[in-house]
Amino acid sequence: MRYAYLENQVLSADPIGLVQLLYAGAIDALLQARALLQEGKIPERSAAINKAMQIILELSSSLDMERGG
What confidence score (pLDDT) does residue 22 get? Predict the structure, then answer.
């Protein structure tokens, strides 16, 4: 059910809304990584950090430096 809601958000979002959704996803992944670290689940923590990094890298690569970043 949550997946359908998220899919609807993505499909109906404007460009600013998509950026906001991506930042929210990165923050959620980092919060999850912190919780997993406290639980001692290191491989899962690493996967959550990698997810956050992939989101940030995608956002970074989509910047248009010619138009002000």
Answer: 93
